Amino acid sequence: MILLACFVLLLCLSAYSEGTVISQEPGGSINLTCSFDGCPSNISGYKYLYLYYDFHEQEEVLFYDNNSPSCTPRLKYEHRIQTHRSTLTFTISNLTVNDTGIYRCVYKKSANIAVKCSVYAVFITEKTSCSSIPPTIIIPPLMLYVIFICIISVLTMWIFFLLIIPRVKQWCIGRKARDAQTVSSDNVYEIMSKKPWNPDHSSD
Questions:
Q1: Which domain holds residue 181?
Q2: Do residues 155 and 55 touch, judged by C-beta distance below 8 A?
Q3: 183 CB contacts (<8 Å, ≥6 apart)?
Q4: Are residues 163 and 123 in the same domain?
Q5: Residue 112: how many CA atoms within 13 Å on its side-chain side?
Q6: Is 76 found in the same domain as 34?
Q7: What is the pLDDT of residues 38-57, one digit of tens each?
Q8: Do residue 56 and residue 152 come from a single domain?
Q9: Residues 62 and 92 in one domain
Q10: pLDDT tens for each residue of 135-148
């Protein structure tokens, strides 16, 4: 199940141009930077910053107002977040497996005008799970698409071998049985047509 969660997160990241993957153990901490550098366009005038968590469903992690020093974490993260205002970096500590998911920085000018910036895929697992992922790496978009294509190919082959091939074999067996029955009926008809019918012999 953990490996499946890893693949799901990687597929989610493939929807973005670039994402940062972070692997950490339970009880550790992670740093999520929401600076302007991670935004795809100029966000001057966007004074509200939201950090969202998304896995099974989306929820708000914190709200930050650039015009004031206020930073409001939500109840789940209230005593676990430290804010570094100079770099707009947020440190989440005392991590658990429930913190595994996608984290997105979103700048808003109003309720209807928003820009999605930095994206992080966070794995909170033991050392034995997803151990091939270094603590913090940048996965190029091409690699994400290659992984996506490989997964789709494997699923397609699995469906082909488990669903399509057995039905084809069953159809072939049924076809051979029908052909054999047809040939048998033709032989009987041919034998009966060659044998002369003698009414006197039959009456005896």
A1: 140-194
A2: no
A3: none
A4: no
A5: 0
A6: yes
A7: 788 888 888 889 999 998 88
A8: no
A9: yes
A10: 555 555 556 666 77
